[in-house]
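Collaborator request, handled under Task 6.
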Amino acid sequence: MASTDPDRPTTLGALRASGWTSRSVKEELRENAIARIVAGQPLFDDVLGYEDTVLPQLENALLAGHDVIFLGERGQAKTRMVRSLTGLLDEWMPVVAGSEINDDPYHPTSRHARDLVAEMGDATPIDWVHRDDRFGEKLATPDTSIADLIGEVDPIKVAEGRYLSDELTLHYGLVPRTNRGIFAINELPDLAERIQVGLLNVLEERDVQIRGYKIRLPLDVVLFASANPDDYTNRGRIITPLKDRFGSQIRTHYPLDVETEVTIARQEANTLDTAGVRVVIPDYMAETVAEFSQLARRSPHINQRSGVSVRLTVANLETMSANAMRRSLQHGETVVVPRVSDLEALAASTIGKLEIETIEEGRDGVVVQQLLKGAVLETFRRHIAVENLRDVVEAFDAELVVNAGEDVRAADYVALLAQLPALSPHVVALTGGDETPEVVASAVEFVLEGLHLSKRLNKEAVGPRSQYRGRN
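Structure tokens returned to the collaborator:
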């Protein structure tokens, strides 16, 4: 993306007169990172939960001018952090016009740029490249070749009459085309070892060699890579000389608490608001979804080597909201508020994202249900002290029966409060005083399920319907 701003120099002579100075990419990243640190600003606005762990290590790596490898399980924002680093580059960068590898006007590298500057001098035309276009990325796959990353002879240019020894016959790969920028390789261990060898010069000598030609391209590239710890032994490995050339290895992690996971899920989840329908997700329901993921990461029934991604929390939050919307539309309700009964739908968005370890066949659903119950109970205990619900339990012991489930309308739960006034203060504590029927219904169902899981009420469930009654 070239700049058309008339105030920017368009020739090499004008660029010199403007006082612009050339800096390496690492110098750009370092100085812009320093400016943010001094201003008390975070490196990224949308990466949460790493403020005291990962980000200080990344700041150290940027200040030290290191190439970095992020090591962590899936769904830990490794790729997002790398892509967001372009925000630490200068907004616009001058290049020799027509350059394929973003040649520095003061220090041209390619044959095209060198010849152009030698011929035209201060009249050499200058283009400006936006920082978003100074990022290159490659997902490492076993079929990735040196030609993809470094370059290859272009047979069409040879057919046009050039000699094979002519540098202009080269078609540059992804790494040279990201010269004076940031290049990222995702899932680095999946890259064949013989291809990893081709990156050694990029990281240490900062140049590339193509097809044995006596061509040296001193590249200015900062390399970032991501890898899953499990990949070191399963799908592939990072060769030792390549690991040695990365200045920093930073270990990422999943959110350490429910609150952070809820914030990330709300930030990433697709909003389901549409014309005439408003979606409200109570905090305790969002916390239940996040707590489910937290419990899964500690469960002996889940393969922890494959990880429990934050994407699971996001997908479950979306599925719970979608099921609530479907139920509300059937009842003609315009405010969508998820309830505990909507958690049954989470199996569809969960089982495919977890590697469940169980001896018996068909136990996946049972494991998911146990985790869901545990998540509801943990969240219930955070919000409500069960000993304060004695009056409610006594009302059920006096043969009160309450129906719940998808076919129960919000108005029916509101009517229950008039029949059971002891329940009202606990519902108000959850709703914050919001008297919207759909909001009240969600809180009522949450309290009843919490009492059941706390062994204060019995629950009989048949399909999508259930009944709560006293244990006597």
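The cover message to the collaborator said: "The two ends are 73 Å apart (CA to CA). Residues 258-470 form one domain. Please let us know whether this matches your experimental observations."
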